[in-house]
Every structure is written in C-alpha cells, then in structure tokens.
Amino acid sequence: MNDQTTTRQLLETYYKGFAEKANWESTIADDFEYIGGDMNNTSPVVGKQAYIEIIKRFSQRFETMKVSQMIVEEDKASVIGNYDFQFPNGFKINGNVSENWTVKNGKLQSLTLYFDTLTFMNNLKP
C-alpha cells in the first residue's frame, strides 16, 4: 500500500469517527503534534492523550461536521472540514476549518488547524 492510500484511509477512518464523536483515536500517533486554536501560539501540543483531551472539549462545540474537500499527496493532506457549531451563549454558526495533516509510520502524526479563532473564542464567553 502506498503512502497516499494509507493517508487517505487513515483520514477516512478519523473523520468518520470524528463526525460520530467516537472511534477515531486509533489513527493518532502516540507522539502526535497539534497546532491550532490559538494561532498566536504556534508551539505544538505533543502527545496523543493531550490531543484527545483537546478534542473532548472541542466536540462539545460542534453538532455536525463533514469533510468538504480532501487533497492527499503522499504522506500529507489538506482537508476542509465544515462544522455546525453551537456555543454556550446560544449562538450557532456554520464554518470551515482548514486542517493540514502529516502521516508517519501508518498513523496520523501531526495536525495544524486554521480557522476564525476570534469568533470562536468570543462565543465561548457567557
């Protein structure tokens, strides 16, 4: 199986589980690196468990998600995820998130997200 096929299969498994909020964790490398949520801080959060904790909180904010676009080149991929967000203040919004991945040794190795963090953070406030 080539890198491109592995990358696509990992992402399909990840996003199927992610949308259902279950059964995506097995695709993540133990030394996973995540950058996102605060683009003023580009230091990665390292570790599978740390990422799982971030996603537990993030999953509370979206009702549905789907992959709008996926481009895979060897061990790298760029995905546009479309999310229906529901915030504690009652505000709802639909938004796209640019999700850039790398794969290593048959696991998702890193993720960098780009999205409108200002709108997101402002709506987390009561």
TrEMBL record:
Question: Superkingdom of this entry's organism?
Answer: Bacteria
The record ties this protein, via SUPFAM superfamilies, to: NTF2-like (SSF54427)
Stored InterPro entries? NTF2-like_dom_sf
Q: What is the recorded name of this protein?
A: Nuclear transport factor 2 family protein
**Phylogenetic lineage:** Bacteria, Pseudomonadati, Bacteroidota, Flavobacteriia, Flavobacteriales
